[in-house]
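Quick start: load a record and inspect it. Here is MoxR-vWA-beta-propeller ternary system domain-containing protein:
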Amino acid sequence: MLLQLQYDAQILHNTGAAFLRGNTPEEWFREMNEWQIPLTGLSGFLLPEHKNTEEAGGLLVVFKNQLPSPEKIRHPYTVINGNCFIPVNARITPAISPAEMKDLLIWHRQILHPAIGFVGFEIRDEISLSVLVNAGKQLTRSWDHAHPGMPPIARLTNIGITQVATTANISELLGNGDAPRPLYDLPQEDGTILSGLPPDENPDTSGQQASFFRESIIGKFLSALKLFSFGGRTASSERSGGRSVRGGAGGSGGSGSSYVQRGLEKMMQDLQAKETVN
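Running the structure step on this input writes:
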């Protein structure tokens, strides 16, 4: 008698195992990780790709005390007669009695897969999931003096603008923080510095009228002209009748020089008077 599987959407048996597709432990553990249950104590059976090869084509994991959520199991299987696994939405045809099934299921465990077919397992074929994990060879090398490496670069979290303090005025920004100095406190041409007081509060200059020409080039020029004697003799002089006679070109030159002197003095007086008015 040939047993076959028949799919029936109306049938939903209790879940007792799960079939994991793939041929590597990495694929199987990736799917088992989605179950979110402890894997301790679980066992499984390796299934071939087909009946004519011994290459692994899947893993049947048998649950014991704890089951994952039904939506996390891709290919759930149920167990009948305590030792035969079939899909939860299938049934065996033709229908057989429990006595006939006991005579047919002679293996320790057997599975009826829709594509692979009927596969039987002995007790020694059952494996623990821990044998699928290879921890590798233990290294006896000491890593106490290993360099930890470069620290990771800090991640950019935000970008902002630094605000400039608004308490600083323009003179502090332009003068490196030096307080501004008044004009009358600046050094003079000869290197001297005034008392630091305004002209109207300075006792040395309080009695003098502020003059623009006092320290200017024109003022110095006019002061020099006042000290220069334009009436000096340039030739021999004689006294006659209580008069001083200037001979030669010196006489006419002296009168011309006096005229120039008077003109310059008059100009200086006018400039000083205009300055006083201002």
